[in-house]
Specification:
Length: about 230
């Protein structure tokens, strides 16, 4: 059996998928991982049809823009929910990937400097009960990270953690992402959101992992570090 093609990660598209298609043509990946903020001109199944028709395993997480309008929500969450890795895991190109999409919001949970920061609401149900259905827009909730999302992701094991938010190796990163990487025991964190390439590292007692932040519409062939001994 031939070796599978590589895993290709793609930074926030914001409507630009040309670099992705070029990279797919050049590298023939077996799987593609998109880190959110699609701003899609059409439903994802239409936009990504060339990849899906080629048998490429396409997975995605939400960013913060998927909740900006009902149209964008419908074209992402409403069109390919089964391929979302938000709070889930999947084996892509032979490696296990765990996903946590969306962004933190101060009115819900703000674990920037302290991963154990007390949230205002742990679940979406709590938020809706507190504010009422009409005062809690479901679109905004869909791209907000609640502790329940973190906890669901933390039940998985994996080699890679893919997030929209960054860990603390980035100036605007969050301690909760570091804590999730440690809990899952990943070797690599991939993130988007900040639109500039970023390389860093998270350390914890007895281990640690590499960090790779993707630029806007940046394709990157995933390079998984060797396990630490």
């Amino acid at each position: 059996m031939s070796n599978p093609g590589p895993l290709l990660a793609y930074g926030d598209p914001h409507g630009d998928f040309v670099p992705l298609f070029r990279a797919v043509k050049e590298h023939s990946p077996s799987a593609v991982l998109i880190v959110g903020d699609f701003d899609p001109p059409a439903p994802l199944r239409v936009v990504l049809a060339p990849l899906l028709e080629a048998g490429i395993d396409v997975r995605w997480i939400p960013g913060n823009h998927e909740g900006d309008s009902q149209e964008w929500y419908d074209r992402t969450f409403g069109d390919m929910p089964e391929r979302s890795l938000h709070g889930r895991s999947a084996t892509l190109a032979g490696v296990r990937v765990v996903g946590l999409g969306g962004v933190f919001r101060e009115r819900v949970w703000w674990p920037r400097n302290n991963a154990a920061a007390e949230p205002r609401y742990r679940t979406r149900v709590e938020a809706r009960r507190a504010h009422g259905e009409r005062k809690t827009p479901p679109l905004r909730q869909a791209i907000t990270i609640f502790p329940e999302d973190w906890e669901r992701a933390a039940t998985n094991g994996g080699d890679i953690l893919v997030c929209h938010e960054a860990p603390t190796s980035h100036p605007y990163g969050f301690a909760a992402i570091d804590a999730l990487a440690r809990r899952v025991r990943v070797r690599l964190v991939i993130h988007g959101h900040h639109h500039r390439p970023h390389e860093g590292r998270i350390e914890w007692p007895g281990g640690g992992c590499a960090v790779r932040g993707l630029g806007r519409a940046e394709p990157w062939i995933v390079e998984l570090p060797s396990p630490q001994k």
